Amino acid sequence: MITSTRRWLRRNRTNFAIGAGVLGAGYLAGQYVLGKISEARQRMSDERIAKENLRRRFEQNQEDCTFTVLAILPTAAENILDAIPVEQILDELQKHKAERLARSVGPSDIASSAPPSVADDDGKSLTSFQSEGYVHASQIAGVDAESGSGTGSIEGSAEGADKEARRTKKTKAQLWNEMKISSITRAFTLLYTLSLLSLLTRIQLNLLGRRNYLASVVSLASPPTQESKINLENHDDDNFEHAYGNDFETNRRYLSLSWWLLHRGCIDLMHKVTAAVKEVFGSLNPREEITLEKLSELTLEVRKRVEGATEEERRTCKWLPFLLPPQDQEAFVLQESGMTDSNSSSSSTTTTSIRRLIDETSDLIDSPSFTHVLTLLLDASFSHLIDVKISALSYKIPPISESTARVQEIVGTDIKAKVANSLAVFCRQAHSIGSGANNEYLAAIEGVRDLEAFAAVVYSSNFEFESPEAVAVSAVLSRPTTAVGESKEVRDRTSLGSSASTGAGAESGLESAWAKALDKEDGKA
Hints:
GO terms for molecular function: protein-macromolecule adaptor activity. The chain is mainly alpha-helical.
């Protein structure tokens, strides 16, 4: 029995060896596959965490942009309001009215000749105007009745005062024309400033946010040099000294360059808008009644003169001089913003790091994508001013809804209002546009989805310029592209973006900003 068993084992030992080898190989292959699956799961988990971290940082960065714009916008608004003192012009008109009434009626009969309610309304309007800086429609209507064609008390005055009356009428006509140009220019300039400031802030904070994200990733990936050492430093997002990278002084100087737009660029932009408004609205009589459609067409003509009438003109329009100072003025801007003192050398303000940030910002501002997104932001802001505020406050047209849209489409074009009434709304809305709290115009701008897509492009591009280690982590970038590129719908009559599409390669790329940025970085990794 034993002998036969030995012979059987001897005859089949080759088969046993092959079977054992197969089993061993299968076991090793199984372990290898399990190891690879475990590694893939761990990698997917790490990538998911990295993507979520990036998404959270990006969304927080956009909220920081909103708060930053609200914080610094009143500075630009104050400079523009001081440069265009519409309220002073109206005060001069009120003085002319009082002098004229005194000459035609007499000081003792002024109070009795006018109804008490009218006198009280004029006093209240003027007091409210002087205290709040607002121009009321009733106030303008009262002054308007005394200007224009030279009727009323001027015709009833003595013949010897005709020359003086004509001189007063001419002066009042000049004042009315100046107030017409100034009130419209001020509102339009603030809209341009708000849109440009929103884009500039998006570029600046997303460039620095990108540096912050890469610095945190590289810091986590680097092995600790002394594991036994206890580190009590705060590297969380609430640590402002480590926010946006580790070069805090460079970041402060880079962000301070927005001083140029707030103090110089907005004024230069005001001159450009003033020339366009004079050319378009110059011949319009404040006493004239026009439709909302006509006012919208005139607004669009102003935009064409400022931004460009054709697609090629808009693409070649240079916004950089309004947003960033020329290189020879950078030291001056840093000094004015408190970053340097008068004794510091100018060479210290142009380090390699800040120069790279400025150059990249300039390239982004001069890009077709910037012009495309800016056009959409202006479409949204001008539409909110004309189609919402002017429509409701001056033309008394209720807000558009599904039930009233067709009715307004039929009868809305026949509704007319005096230009003077619209000027009152322009003056009041100027303060709302420059407000640092509950700003409806900023909300309308941020409703443009392409703005977030543009910020995503800024945030996710050019990783290789930050640090050599950053190239390895760029492949984890990802963001859903649903609804990206869906612009806020605005009415064609005040919109340049809807009348002539800028659908070049750069603009169409905004519809899949994160996907294209990811593909580009994956090719480098």
